[in-house]
Every structure is written in structure tokens, then in C-alpha cells.
């Protein structure tokens, strides 16, 4: 029996969604608490927000979810940006602004997202990293509620959540946009779960496609439902005629692609099952309606098909609207930066796509590496960007320039490309001819996309300002651009001190209550390990089926990052028709090699203190 551990007290800058009230553990005694350590840039964290919604509804009078926002990027430290993100993603529980990561450290979190469960008496009873834990959490909550109801230590009733007021604006956190005929614009109105057609002035609403409520419903424009849609692209006329629709929409939180017929506004599902992808990578073509997707964030017509920025699994996929098939295009699901021939490359939350005027190059905003990348002739290249933890606002030669979590790109007719440098609040320009980066506009509120119109104007989707903004005439000229030598940042999470030589890496996983490891389709676990720089890891890199592995660390590399991807398949233990589940997490563990470092590194995919 492991000694019971008291939950550490909350420490942070302040609270959101509490009506201004500061919460303490004592205020919440008698409730089951679920702490969700997240950061709003992280797609896995956004997945967990959606996994928690049904639990909050089911256990509402006994469970209190607390979002502990522990930021990665500099922009995420801004309290106004955090407040906007809480509204944007429909967070309906209290959020602690853990700006200095004090609560993160007290709970020994090592990855985004991490979940901790605290019982009604104030003891930590479970910790788990990653996503895919909803079923296990439900069983654990059932046990805790039954136990503490019997003991008399559970106090049912309303929680501390106080909803904020929502301002009335025509758009609410728009995501992406394209130009239609006659200068009209089609915008994904993400927080209102719909598409909006605007007149050429970029302000007048012509029509709305979607009822405006979160959901998944096909049909006429006024009854169809989306869930936080993002990317939109128009099919070429020949493809649209065969497919029967004109627009492909990345219906992000539904994990679907939807088709829209412009003439009527009719919406239909064209790819995806609605289940989130939790499988293994393959290079096969699949029936588009039978394949699982994961947070598609943008779409573009390239290489005679729709390419999908599959942010949720750090890949690009393809969709053929004529053959009605879909499959993987680039990426291995490892979250990192590595170029080379497709598909064996590494990406990190690709979120924006744009095709060059000659159709040869597909530009990619790879947000978590703060990188501008491109696909050409079957290879992936990095134009700007240095990795997962390096970001800033620095112009000049591309190899030295820095971005901060860009979400959008827009190819220009001259071969250069504009970047919606989201967390810097800027529009940047990369010129391949000179190999330089410049700033063409700043002071924007989280720009998330760019529209280059047929007459040469540039519209910015200024997401956190809830509007489309035109770049000033001349902004794209050499005279209109500026060179900024701003701050360089590096995410400095506390490193783990390891000794050079042999290291045992253990991923700790215990099946949730009522489940067992599932060997029905082969090994139930998978572990993939790599390092940055690669020289840090002398032995032990690669993929295997055991969750424990012997590594050998170099004594010639002072520090680096161990990149670990683990997953475990489980199924219901007693059910006649057992449901299957997959838990998965990517860790980027900062390490420092020291003589006094340890020789074992435990990582918790799911663990119980019992």
C-alpha cells in the first residue's frame, strides 16, 4: 500500500470562470477534483477538453474540473490571451492561471496534458498523462463517488463555475477564410460553430451556414451543425461537379471533413467517422467515410487532391473527393522537426496550408515548431524555424529568424509567402529569392489566416479581434516591410538530471478499473524513442512493443530533449462485446547530463496511488 499523498495547494496568478473568486482546496473539500494541466497551444490539450465535456455533464454535482493553465509560449503568459482562449474553446470550468508553473511543479507534471484526480478528502488518487483516458476516468469516478458517498465525505451540489458574458459580434474567433465569386468571402466562424459568407467589404453578413450550436448534423444551411470548424477550400470545377459539393470544410472538433454546396448551403459529411484517430500509421488508401481523423485544421487543393493539415497527429493527409478515399500523406506522428522525403518526416501540429501560384509548392505553417515549411517534389523542407522550444520575433536571414506559433500562410504571386505569425500578433513575409524574413504588419490580435484576393489585396483573419482586416496598401512593398530584431525565447521547463551511460526508461501504465490490456490485434503497447540532438542517444532509439527500455546517453552532450511516444491498448474486461480504448502521449522531456544524475526515468501514462 502506497502512502496517501495530500494534494498540494493551488498557486497561480489568478482565476477565470469563477466570478473573481480565488479558490482553495478547502473550498472544494467534499468534491472529486480533476486537475487538467493544459496550455492553449497544445492540440492534445484541446482533445482532452472535449473528452472531459461528457464527464462534467454526467458527474456535475459531484465532480469539479479545474483547468490549470501552465504556458509553453510567451504569448500564452498574457492574461488577456488566456481569457480569450478559455472563451474560444468553450471551457466551462474554473481555470487557474499558473503563469509561473508553480502548481505544475508541485504536482510533478512533465507533459501537456497531465491529469490528476483528488478525492473528496483531499488526497491525490490518480495521475495520468496524455489523452484517451475518458473511459478509465469514468470508472474511477464511479468508484470514488460510491466510496465517499458511503463514508459521508462526498458533498453534492453546484460547483464554483461562473460563466463569463459573451459580447455580441458578427464573428466570434474566426479561423480561416477563402475568396468566393464576385469578391465574397467564406469564413469559418469557429466559436459559433458555423460558416459565414461576407460581402466584399469583409463585414456585411450575407448568410450563415450552420445553426450556430456545437454538434454534428448534416442537412440544410439553417439546421446543419459543426464543432469549431477551421480550414475551408474550394474544389476545382471538375472535382466539384463529380463530388456534388463545392467547398471542403475541416470540421476540427468533430474530426470530420464536411462538404458544402454553395448554391443551397447544404452540408454533408464527406470524410471521417467522427471518432478520433487512435491507430497505427499506414500508407494505404481508405474509404473516406470509414477512416478516423484527428483534428483536421486546414485543407488545400494540391497534387490533384485535398491535402489536410492533420494537427491532432502531426501529419498531412490526403482526401480524393472523386474517388472518395483518404490516406496519410506525410509524417510519422512523432511531434518534432525533421525534413526529408515523404512520408518519413516529423511535424508538429501543422495548422495552415497554401499553394504557390505555379502549383508546385505547398506551404505549411507548422505551429508547435514555430516553423514555415513546404512540400515540393515529394520532400519536406524547413524555410524558417528551429524546433519545438525555440521561438520569438526576429527578422533577417531565414536560418536565424524566429516565429511564434504561426497558424496560417498565404502564397503570393511573386513566389514569396505571407505568414500569420499568430502568437506574435504579426504578418511576416518570407522571400525565397533572398532567403530573408520581414514583418509587414504587427499589433494584430492572433492572426490565424491570410486571404490573397484576385485583385491583389490581402485580408487577415484577426481571430481574437473577431474580424477580417485589410493590410494597408504598400505593406507588401520593400518600403512597407520592416525588420524587427525582437526577443528570442526558449521554453525552459525544469530539466531532468540524468547520468551519462545506461538509463532505464519506464513508461508506467496500469489499465483503468474494469479494463485489461488488449492483445486481440497484436501487442497492446508501443514505445517510440528519439532524441534532439540525435547524438544525445547512443543506443535505444526506435520503435518497440515494451514500455520499458534500456537507453545509453552520451557523455559528450550536455543537454537535450528525449522524445518519447507511448501508447497502450485496453478493452473492457468483463463485457460480452468489449469496447476498445487507446491511451497515448507524446513527451518532449528536457534533460541535463550531470555526474549526479539518475539512471532511471519514469513517465506516467496512467498510474494509481493506491
From TrEMBL:
Bilayer-spanning residue ranges: none
Gene3D superfamilies in alphabetical order: Glutaredoxin, TolB, C-terminal domain
CDD domains found in the cross-reference section: NHL-2_like
Stored InterPro entries: 6-blade_b-propeller_TolB-like, AhpC/TSA, NHL2_NHL_rpt_dom, Thioredoxin-like_sf, Thioredoxin_domain
Xref: PROSITE patterns: THIOREDOXIN_2
Thioredoxin domain: residues covered: 1-146
Record PANTHER family: NHL REPEAT-CONTAINING PROTEIN 2
Protein name as catalogued: Redoxin domain-containing protein
Lineage, top ranks: Bacteria, Bacillati, Actinomycetota, Actinomycetes, Micromonosporales
